[in-house]
Amino acid sequence: MKNFKRFLLLLLVLLIAIVAYNYPKLNILAGYSAKNIASSVFVANRSLEYTDATDNNFTPVNLAADEVDYKKGIAISSAFGLLTRKAVHRKGLGTVLTLIKEDETASYLSPKRLQPDNVTPYPYGNAPQKDTIFTDVNYDKLQLAIGSVFKKRNQTRAVVVLYKDQIIAEKYADGFTKDSKILGWSMTKSILSTVFGVLQYQGKLNVYDKAPIDSWQNDERKNITLHNLLQMNSGLEWDENYNEISDATKMLFLERDMTTMQEEKFLVGKPNETWNYSSGTSNLLSGILRKQFNTHQEYLDFWYTNFIDKIGMNSMILEADLSGNYVGSSYSWATPRDWAKFGLLYLKKGNWKGEQLFAKEWVEYITTPTPTSNGTYGAQFWLNAKKQFKDVPANMFFADGYQGQRVYVLPDQELVVVRFGLSWFDENEFLKEIISAVE
User: Fold this and answer.
1) pLDDT digit string (tens) for 166-201?
2) Strand 166-172 relative to strand 182-183, pairing
3) 269/231 Cα distance (integer angstroms)
4) DSSP class of residue 209?
5) Contact, 41 vs 183, CB < 8 A?
6) Is 225 helix (H, G, I), strand (E, B) or coil?
7) Which one-letter DSSP state was computed for residue 377?
8) Cα Rg for the chain, rounded, in angstroms?
9) 126-157, pLDDT tens digit by residue?
10) Is this structure's pTM higher than 0.70?
11) Which run of H or E residues covers position 398?
């Protein structure tokens, strides 16, 4: 009996040790599930059951047990009953993971939005577009190109192709329509960059100025510029790893203020000589943007009133952290048609219905390759400068999000191509076939 009791005690100690060792992972597992469920249900208006069966149906996230309190606007996820995380919906700010009980009912500000233009035809408004048939478009070939990325279940959810200001092809997976909001993930970084472009055009900042970070002024980090940050070429330490506990996962699932983690890192390279992809840098930039305004309300409003709603991306929801900062690295939702408007703004070099929102030169700026990025990265946009997509023009550039969320801009072809899905695909072949259909 003594030996049996010792065995049970040893087993208990072992189980406690295993739980303690894996507790941080369980925290992030449950956090990811709760956040994704909450946004899918309360922002995108999809069901808990659908989200569990699709977006959250991968290991280890699918091990979480999820539920939704529709009355309170809360999603709850449990990791084996050992740890529970909650995410709460806030009108105008999307959803956010809570850290303490009081976060569930905390007061907050909401952004003020411009009224949609439902009279002007798409893409410059939200009314039905005028029917246009282009004689230089092979529509059969175009449909084949688009259909090819829908063959696998859940691979692709939406594709929209704009040519000369008109939708020439559009396709959705079952359960999705032109009105479905879809998460852009890291395409949000390109939205963030554009806000800097708008402020630069308005003369309210200069991206070549030193980053206004007080804690950097007594060491070498004081030489880091906004330009270095926008190009992710600051030399700051950052671990962008989503398979383990990392800087990125701790920031997204454990931090109240996501703008400060990158600020606290030290140099591991030299500014302008050390490219390192970092979601922490994007959120640091969001925090810097907040400092450009006298009030929090002005910061929240500006992204919409001077850019997003100005181009009719009225479906877009930018999600904020618990401190009220937009999560510029990862969390923005909009319909595929509205994401296409974003691409069109860049195709038009910042001009929207005769109004210049950012300088024409801003397009050249964001598409200038970051030193040491091997021609793949600009200022929060991805590039094809070194022809990693060998059959696509070198001047194509794009917003890029997790699992292949994309807004491609092809200036030579006057094309914008939008794709959403749950898995990666052969981008070169996809774009090659679309291009060949309009040449």
Assistant:
1) 999 999 999 999 999 999 999 999 999 999 999 999
2) unpaired
3) 14
4) S
5) no
6) strand
7) B
8) 23
9) 999 988 899 999 999 999 999 999 988 879 99
10) yes
11) strand 397-401
